[in-house]
Amino acid sequence: MLELKDLYWTLNDGSSIINGVSFQTHGKLTVITGPNGGGKTSIAKLISGVEKPTSGEILLDGEDITALDITERAKIGVAYAFQQPVRFKGLTVRDLIELASGNTLNTAELCDLLGKVGLCAEEYIDREMNTSLSGGEAKRIEIATVLARNAKLSVFDEPEAGIDLWSFSRLVQTFEEIRSRADGSLVVISHQERILSIADEIIVIADGKVRIAGEREEVLPKLLSGEYTCACPKRY
Ligand SMILES: Nc1ncnc2c1ncn2[C@@H]1O[C@H](COP(=O)(O)OP(=O)(O)O)[C@@H](O)[C@H]1O
Ligand SMILES: [Mg+2]
């Protein structure tokens, strides 16, 4: 279980980005949604340790992880897929996925992981993770590296961005598979109705605050009815 307690994040210039965010995840798949610029990516960075909050606490399964840096959080099982994929010149797709998984993988295993994000492994495993990959390809490979980690908590920031419909469907299926497994929980930042509709819980973030939080059954109808115009889900 992930718990954020009264989290604030203020920049050096005094602008406050996150203004007292508290929530707990209870289910396996929590979706964070809300308008652009609302603070979703900032929350993902605070959870993964890319940024440190100005005040407040972050707990994972009851353990206070606020003081841990990104590497320490990774070690205890937090994995984060950036909204903008990171590129690593000189490393191949195979290198990256093996690094993430902590094992040497055979082609069948690599195929399985890349297949989950709609890529054909044969074409990609020896490619370098450089600018020759399109944005959507780089993004999907990054998602595959997070899947390879099999972490206690995996955070995906707008995984739908730049991904075609078929790959997106495959990814939604993958999230559902993870959700049905005993171990590991997911926090997915998304605007997509199809991701919202498989959530256990939905949290709407706007202006650096929680606007609505609750079980999908309760929150999604409100979003779909347009009651919260700031947070209308997108349909593919
Ligand atoms: N490092 C930063 N420096 C300056 N402004 C930032 C920084 N990170 C986020 N912001 C600002 O904080 C607000 C929330 O951003 P973000 O968390 O990326 O929102 P979202 O992911 O919901 O679109 C935006 O106004 C953004 O410009
Ligand atoms: Mg964002």
Short synopsis of the structure:
The chain is an alpha/beta fold. The chain contains nine helices and twelve strands. The chain has a single domain, classed as P-loop containing nucleotide triphosphate hydrolases (Rossmann fold, 3-Layer(aba) Sandwich), CATH 3.40.50.
Describe the structure.
The chain has one domain: P-loop containing nucleotide triphosphate hydrolases (Rossmann fold). Helix 3 (93-101) packs parallel to helix 6. With 236 residues, the chain is of the alpha/beta class. Strand 4 and strand 5 (63-64) form a beta hairpin. The two termini are 31 Å apart. Strands 6-9-10-3-11-12 form a six-stranded mixed beta sheet, sandwiched between helices. A four-stranded antiparallel beta sheet has the order 2-1-4-5, covered by helices on one side. The chain has a two-stranded antiparallel sheet with strand order 7-8. The chain has nine helices and twelve strands. 34% of the residues lie in helices and 28% in strands. The chain is globular.
CATH superfamily: P-loop containing nucleotide triphosphate hydrolases
How many domains would you count in the coordinates?
A: 1
The chain-level mean pLDDT equals 92
Instruction: Bin the strand percentage.
Output: 25-35%
List the helices and strands in order: EEEHEEHEEHHHEHEHEHEEH
Number of helices: 9
CATH architecture label: 3-Layer(aba) Sandwich
CATH topology: Rossmann fold
Question: Which structural class is indicated by helix and strand composition?
Answer: alpha/beta
User: What is Rg?
Assistant: 17 Å
Number of strands: 12
Low-confidence stretches: none
List bound small molecules: adenosine-5'-diphosphate, magnesium ion
* End-to-end C-alpha gap: 31 Å
Helix content: 25-40%
The CATH class assignment is Alpha Beta
What is the molecular shape? globular
Largest sheet: 6 strands, mixed
